[in-house]
Request: fold
Amino acid sequence: MDNATKKMLSSYATKIRMGIIEGTYCAKAGHPGGSLSSADLFSYLYFKEMRVDPKNPKWEDRDRFVLSKGHCAPGLYSALALKGYFPVEDIRTLRHIDSYLQGHPNMNTVPGIDMSTGSLGQGISAAVGMAKGAKYIGKDDINVYTLLGDGEIEEGQVWEAMMFASQYKLDNLCVFIDCNGLQIDGRCEDVMSTEPIDEKLKAFGFEVMTIDGNDFDELEKAFDAFHKTNGKPFGVIMKTVKGKGVSYMENQVDWHGKAPNEEEYNIAMAELKAKLAEIEEA
Reply:
């Protein structure tokens, strides 16, 4: 990846992280940890990869994205706002009683949301349906992307969807699994280990790649491999850091689902502003 593109994506990823902190702080609730670990993917999807039009959110020929781990809506909302789907300042209304930006994505109120999600395991089922539908109507150029958490794939429904994707050779489907190693109750390996994830995906008929999900060069390799794959759905196991970008949140399970207080907010925003300045000066 050339330096200009990497700089652009890094800048957006940092701004997405700032939006996550802003939104959860103002809401006094939310899920910053897994939103932060996914910020680099959100940046790549919306500012390099996906064919979408913020001025026409319901464009029939657009690519689709389903946030199967719907509790990480703060990250998705930040990306959508930066892309121009709605005003960035609305992030401050996250989870407020009269806000259209609720704690989980709602396709009926938020421009750019392709599927209402939140019940873990169900988002990927919707995504495979979208991919199959695109194939059915002859729109093979419509790609469908979905993001799951490593805790989420403990749900049996996930694997039924994987089986369906393989059965119907959905090579327009790209499934990302955010493997940050932590879920609400602790370490994934202690709660319910799903390893080896790569071998399971292969057994279910997927083409599989394991990458550093917080590295843009690695993400680019995964997307390139997805576009070259024929006849199989594509799975990307992203090794990430939960809470990535905020020092005291990194690899801390406590930050799965709580908001920063004022002092913690100020520390996080100072770190992210310093990171953004470093990127822009490079």
User: Anything to note?
Assistant: The longest strand covers residues 173-179. The radius of gyration is 18 Å. The chain has a mean pLDDT of 97. The beta strands are 64-67, 144-149, 173-179, 182-183, 186-187, 207-212, 234-239.
